[in-house]
Specification:
globular, Jelly Rolls, Arc Repressor Mutant, subunit A, 225 residues, 13 strands, alpha+beta, 39% helix, 2 domains, 4-stranded antiparallel sheet
């Protein structure tokens, strides 16, 4: 199983101050929207810190279908190589908006993580959670209909990236219906039909290249069977 790891900003409080010192001397690099910054033919083996913008991580399956694995936001850390003798194949990282990031040698990040037992334990716990999410995604492909898979993704986005308002949750990510289709393994037109249904039934408002507002999170969760 190919493996990609990333740590969202919300999960790395245990890494903060000393880690910032590792990245601080590095000059940021900037990339425009829809630029592939890492692919299977590039092997720089580095650890990255996103300082602005949003990126998406996709994997090319053997049948030619592309699936969206995760989204990287400012403050998140990732590597172009799996840590601890992992491997990398058919995984791409593409900017969803103009992006800046800094990077260091993978070995420097590994030394930092492994230098403290508690830090290493926290890191492995986060990686285990990510692998569990990946297995859940595989189960979604096998055992749920499209509406249920789409609702699952929107609920996950709400919890990972959403900002709570008085009676709703706002997800401000530059994703398209094609991105959602790639994430749940279906056609863009099918996603569009189901998003229109969700809007008509009052579950959400908006939904493509704009702020998506979840109006009824409980109803979406009820669709996940």
């Amino acid at each position: 199983m190919d493996f990609f790891w990333s740590l969202p900003k919300t999960s790395i409080a245990w890494l903060n101050d000393p880690l910032n010192g590792l990245f601080a001397p590095v000059q940021p690099r900037r990339y425009d929207e829809r630029t592939i910054i890492s692919d299977p033919d590039k092997e720089p083996e580095r650890a990255f810190l996103c300082t602005s913008g949003t990126l998406k991580v996709t994997k090319l399956l053997s049948n030619g279908r592309e699936i969206l694995i995760t989204i990287i936001e400012p403050g998140s850390i990732w590597s172009d190589r799996a840590l601890l003798k992992g491997y990398w194949r058919e995984v791409f990282i593409e900017t969803m908006s103009p992006v800046t990031f800094v990077s260091i040698e993978k070995e420097a990040f590994e030394r930092y993580v492994c230098s403290d037992p508690e830090r290493l334990t926290q890191f492995m716990m986060r990686i285990s959670e990510q692998m569990s999410d990946a297995l859940t995604l595989l189960e979604d492909f096998r055992g749920r209909d499209v509406a249920s898979r789409l609702a699952s993704v929107l609920v996950r986005f709400s919890k990972q990236y959403g900002v709570e308002k008085e009676s709703s949750v706002v997800i401000d990510l530059p994703f398209t219906h094609q991105d959602l289709a790639n994430m749940i393994g279906t056609a863009r037109e099918t996603v569009s039909r189901n998003m229109a249904r969700f809007r008509a039934e009052g579950y959400l408002r908006g939904g493509q290249m704009a702020t998506l507002e979840i109006l009824n999170l409980n109803s979406l969760e009820a669709l996940i069977v």
